[in-house]
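Structure, all three chains, one model.
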Amino acid sequence: MAQEDVHLDDAGLALGLSLGGGGGASDAARQGTCSRLSREPRALEPSLTLSMPDEATATGSGGCGGGPSHSVSSLSVAGVKRERVEEADGERASSTAAAARACGAGAEDDDDGSTRKKLRLTKEQSALLEDRFKEHSTLNPKQKVALAKQLNLRPRQVEVWFQNRRARTKLKQTEVDCEFLKRCCESLTEENRRLQRELQELRSLKFAAPPAAATPAAAGAVPAPAPFYMQLPAATLTLCPSCERLGGPAAAAKADPDRPKAAASHHFFNPFTHSAAC
DNA sequence: CTTTGGCTCTCCCTTACGTCA
DNA sequence: TATGACGTAAGGGAGAGCCAA
């Protein structure tokens, strides 16, 4: 799936929705070669460390005060699947991680390694992450390490945050799309009813009136306003092959003024060139 | 040139923790 | 105080691309 599908408006909503699984294709391409610069065997040490916010630190063991002020107490859990390249480089960006190891890795409640403490990001951390996400919904390895350093987090934590943030964005967009389709369905249902009534009238007029008055206009019928999907040439109402959405930016914008403009402009599919802008 | 194994990435689903009503 | 709902950090699997052998 192309990551470029995720676009942000001012509200931070993703405006493009891509359906279907498989994320690796263009993702790797976007990464380019920079992600491979420091490819080395992964660190095999069990090194999951979880930073805890201030309050947790205050209640934790007093000897763990070596980290930054907002995330100092950490917990190491065995069985981590992998450590990222930049973390294996020996340049542990987070002093949090170092503090965790120095602090005996949360010995107070991690006897068997089965419990996992959960990090709560501080408001400042969340705000900065949010800002960066608005700029780019993905990070290259360099950006990730830099941001992790800035936030006193591990690159892996930054990566996970972005991953979860993308998921939330996509979920929101799915809800928006769902609502849009619902309205579309309602509109179609209503239009179908209207056409059925019109057909009924025409049939009755056919037998009751002279041929000259056999049209709704001639009979004085007031035509209902055409639904939004009928205001487009049929050729533009094409399902986008990549996302399977009904095409036609004008239609989308007319049908749902609340829908963000960028979203409405997506998924325009030209049936002649077979290209989609989604 | 093709194949293959190892590596990375992201996405997706799930789990589990922290918070709040 | 106990509890269920909810938000979210993190674990782990799967699929895909890249690279070297």
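The two ends of chain A are 11 Å apart (CA to CA).
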